[in-house]
Design goal:
heterodimer, A: mainly alpha, MetI-like fold, 14 helices, B: mainly alpha, 13 helices, globular
Chain lengths: 336, 333
């Protein structure tokens, strides 16, 4: 009783304050877990980066044999090896992501413009659920269709026998190729872009468009010159978020793009599109059984750190570009 | 615009003017016949791409439907995977189907409440502002994190000896692969979706609703619990359904954290708990293993499972659609 009297001016927390504190603690906890995740992954990845320096990202040697010797060096009580030049994996990720993002940017822009402005009513109503369904099809289903339909088609019908013969000394062309990976990745990331583009295009004030129309400019020009230019933040945000998704895609690519750590060479001409490769994310999936070897574990975590940092940076950038648009165009009655 | 009240201030209870719901077409009389040919080519290209996307979606759905009808037998759904040499001997996918539901249940059981909590905090409290910005960007970072990376982090987490009781241990070596592990990490996949949907729903509720609740003497926490969350229920349901859709469709985390055994392999003796501590598979990992690139290579089984998976995804989509429309119908005027 006396103890209570010693601090009388300390009021008991009201229910409101307790709720606020509880929610605040929950939020801090989640943030803490995620930052701990970042720290742990980088800590596990550090030995691989420390041994290789910037050569980690460079070329040289065969990536697959390097990974193999990293794995075995952990097994036999030898000195652990960390030598890896991951450029073929990085190059594969850049090629598949870049190809898919460029194609799907053009397609998504046209589809979003069409969906928001030019499609007749029933088609407009149809397109939205279609896009949403396309976005929610699991990547393993895309992979299954790719490996059972697209890859055999490319392998049997598109690659000529002479192409196969000419590439045999370097690599086997079976249909698991850059082309298949880019095509299916395009279908996977377009819905993300279309949804964000369309949201941006819809939030352009109607008065601006009507002003342009009143000057006698046709609907197509008006929409491209006014709405599309105004929605630039949405275009950037959508592209960046879709890129982050493409960089992190592992399952579909591991089924379709091939399993060799080979860097497709644009100097090969058109055959280049038919060459197999393996990106960073599929490499992790490909080697998960070998995590028991400590140097291998550090190497895989290094790949994971590269993926996490690049995709997190991309999605933060996309989120930041979306902010000004929200401030200016959200004319609806939302609470601040 | 607003009628002056006694104090001369604009009436605060003035209903928000109806929002321009969806763009109306600009002058429909503007026929494209008068346009320059480049514009007409552009419009034709837009038509072509719009129809192409519908066609691709239809092709995927119809292709899987045909394959599903060809290969799906009712017996596949109620028999367990078995070891065998031909596609006739290897049984069905009852266990993967159960595994899918268990994983989705655990993941959404964690991500639902936590996500709603974060969304409420962000939308209704959000103090100090610096912390709110950190939270927002962290959730955004999580939304962009590749699921393989989350899976690797999960292995790191659940192979630590303190969390060993959640999975199989053998001579103090923690296996780290179980339904607990997979479900917990998958909740990170669903979390950003739940947060953004609920937050949007809460922000769409105009301030006069909150003020009315305070005016009848409700405290802030009671307002949130009794007024705001019920009003935002369609968004809560939408967010959870979107989260479940992503959880069910995820493959990388399952491959890394569920042990990839075809049947449910319990650990320990307590029924229920032993399954959760044990390993198993889901429809996605079943498809992955049965694809020609996987270990089992039985495309017919993979097609049948893919069809079932697509059916689940489509029905979740329909639910999202229904509740999405319902939340739009709540016009706060």
């Amino acid at each position: 009783m006396d103890e209570e009297l010693l601090e009388p001016e300390e009021p008991r927390l009201s229910q409101d304050q307790r709720v606020e504190l509880g929610l605040g603690a929950l939020v801090c906890g989640v943030v803490f877990v995620l930052l701990a995740m970042l720290a742990f992954i980088i800590k596990e990845a550090w030995p691989s980066f420390a041994h290789n320096g910037l050569h980690w990202f460079g070329t040289g040697g065969n990536v697959d044999t390097e990974i193999q010797s990293i794995f075995t060096s952990g097994d036999l009580n030898q000195t652990p090896q960390f030598l890896i030049h991951a450029w073929p994996l990085i190059w594969s990720t850049i090629l598949t992501t870049g190809g898919a993002v460029v194609i799907s940017f053009v397609c998504s822009l046209f589809v979003a413009v069409f969906m928001v402005e030019f499609a007749p009513g029933p088609l407009k109503l149809l397109l939205e659920p279609v896009i949403r369904l396309l976005a929610s099809v699991p990547s393993v289903i895309y992979g299954l269709i790719g490996v059972l339909v697209v890859v055999p088609f490319i392998g049997n019908d598109l690659i000529s026998r002479s192409d196969k013969a000419s590439m045999t000394p370097v690599i086997q062309l079976s249909g698991s190729s850059l082309l298949a990976a880019v095509l299916i990745l395009t279908i996977m990331i377009s819905p993300i872009m279309i949804a964000i583009f369309a949201e941006g295009l819809r939030s352009v004030p109607r008065g601006w468009l009507e002003g342009s129309l009143a000057l006698g400019i046709n609907r197509w020009r008006t929409f491209w010159k006014i709405a599309v230019l105004t929605a630039r933040p949405a275009l950037i945000a959508g592209t960046v978020l879709a890129t982050a998704r493409a960089v992190g895609e592992s399952v579909m690519l591991s089924m379709i793009s091939g399993t060799v750590g080979f860097a497709p060479n644009p100097a090969d001409g058109l055959v280049f599109l038919f060459e197999p490769s393996r990106g960073l994310a599929p490499t992790i999936l490909h080697n998960t059984d070998e995590l028991s070897s400590p140097p291998m574990k550090h190497t895989l975590f290094a790949i994971a750190a590269v993926l996490l940092v690049s995709s997190a940076a991309l999605s933060l950038f996309g989120w930041a570009t979306k902010q000004p648009m929200k401030r200016y165009f959200n004319v609806g009655g939302t609470a601040a | 615009m607003s009628t002056p009240t006694l104090s001369g201030q604009p009436d605060p209870i003035q209903p928000v003017p109806p929002v321009d719901s969806g763009p109306t077409r600009l002058g429909a009389s503007d026929s494209s016949a008068s346009w320059r040919w480049t514009d007409r080519v552009g419009l034709a290209f837009a038509w072509f791409l719009g129809l192409l996307f519908c066609a691709i979606t239809a092709a995927i759905v119809i292709f899987l439907l045909v394959q599903g009808i060809r290969f799906l037998r009712p017996s596949l759904i109620y028999t367990n995977p078995k070891v065998g040499y031909t596609q006739g001997e290897t049984g069905g996918f009852l266990d993967p189907l159960i595994g899918t539901f268990i994983v989705a249940g655990i993941a959404i059981g964690i991500a639902g409440p936590v996500g709603v909590g974060i969304a409420v905090w962000l939308s209704e409290y959000g103090r100090p502002a610096g912390l709110a910005r950190v939270v927002e960007s962290t959730v955004e970072m999580l939304a962009g994190a590749p699921s393989v990376v989350l899976g690797l982090f999960g292995l790191l987490l659940f192979q630590s000896s303190t969390l060993g009781f959640l999975s199989q241990t053998d001579n103090h070596v923690v296996f780290g692969k179980s339904f607990f592990a997979a479900g917990t990490i998958l909740s990170l996949v669903a979390l950003p979706l739940v947060v953004s949907a609920v937050r949007e729903g809460l922000q769409a509720i105009p301030n006069h609703v909150r003020e009315a609740s305070y005016a009848v003497g409700k405290s802030k926490s009671a307002t949130i619990r009794r007024v705001l969350l019920p009003a935002a229920r369609p968004s809560v349901i939408t967010g959870n359904m979107l989260g479940i859709g992503h959880v069910i469709g995820d493959t990388a985390i399952i491959l890394l954290l569920l042990g990839d055994t075809q049947t449910l392999q319990g650990v320990g003796h307590l029924p229920g708990l032993s399954t959760l501590r044990g390993t198993g598979s889901t429809l996605t990992s079943y498809i992955f293993d049965n694809a020609p690139t996987g270990d089992l290579n039985q495309p017919n089984k993979a097609y049948a499972a893919a069809f079932v998976l697509l059916l689940i995804i489509v029905s979740l989509n329909v639910i999202v659609d229904v509740f999405g429309r319902r939340s739009k119908e709540l016009l706060w005027t």
